[in-house]
Structures are given as structure tokens and as C-alpha cells.
Amino acid sequence: MAGRSSFGFLGRFGRSSDLRAFDDGLRRCDVHPAQVVDGVKLAAVRLVQKHSASGEPTERAYHDAAALVSFTVLGEGRMGELLGEGMAQSLAARVERAVDYPDGLDAELVLLALHAGLVAPHVADTFGLSIEDD
Fold it and tell me: pLDDT tens digit string along 16-73?
């Protein structure tokens, strides 16, 4: 899967399994895949692959990445309604750790969501997320 991500060709050849898994992860969190542009999804998939210990991430790894991106879009309240309070709190803890550990996968996914303009204002305010200008 790693390095073979594909959107298909002229709608004839299907999307690669890694992108389908990421899209499925977004759907599980009530974020329609069309809400996240393909370039962001491709970058997220590549980040998951880059941080995979085996080089071949599992479908679960893509779902987990999509859940974090979805959290930045929807926030803790909506994710709690969808997935339960425990899962929403776990995702919130991942965002908090991402702020403290900028070299990890979660930090790179949150930064990607910030640059793509996906992060909801209330999520940015809650976690102090911003892109600093130098």
C-alpha cells in the first residue's frame, strides 16, 4: 500500500485501498469525504505510511488518522454524540499531546488540517491551535 496511493484514472480505475480506508474512517465520524479535499487525504495517507513501523499501515491506522482529522472538523461535543464520550475524550487527548509533541503523526495531521482550513474555530480556540507566522 505504501507509496501506491491513487485516485484512479478518469473514474475508471478505483481509488487505492489506503484512500478508501481513509474515506471510510471519515464516514464513520460523520464527515463526508467530499468535505476533505483529495490533496489533504493523500497527504494524510502518506503521513500514516511515513509513521508506520512496518511500512504497511493497517486499515485501522487510516481510520484512526481520519478520526483525528474529523475531530478537528467537528469538535469534542459532536464526536461525543457520534462515537461516545470516551472516544471523544481520547481524541481530545491526542490533540493535546500533539501540541506538546510536534514531531509525531498526530501533530502532523493537526497541522495539515490547520493549513487546509479544516479546523473548526471552536476547536482551534479550545486547544490553542494556530499557524504562527515567522
Answer: 899 999 999 999 999 999 999 999 999 999 999 999 988 789 999 999 999 999 999 9
Specify the pTM.
0.88
Per-residue pLDDT at 131? 85
> Assign residue 130 a region: left if phi > 0, alpha if psi is -120 to 50, beta otherwise?
beta
Which residues, other chains included, contact 46 with Cβ-Cβ below 8 Å and sequence gap of 6+?
5
pLDDT at 134 over 90: no
Rounded Cα distance between 74 and 80, Å, is: 10
The per-residue b/e assignment along 42-57, b for 16 or more CB within 10 angstroms, e otherwise, is bbbbebbbebeeeeeb
- Give the angle 100-25-68 at the CA atoms, nearest 5°: 15
Three-state SS for 18? Answer: helix
| Cα 127 from Cα 105, distance rounded (Å) | 17
Strands (E), 1-134: none
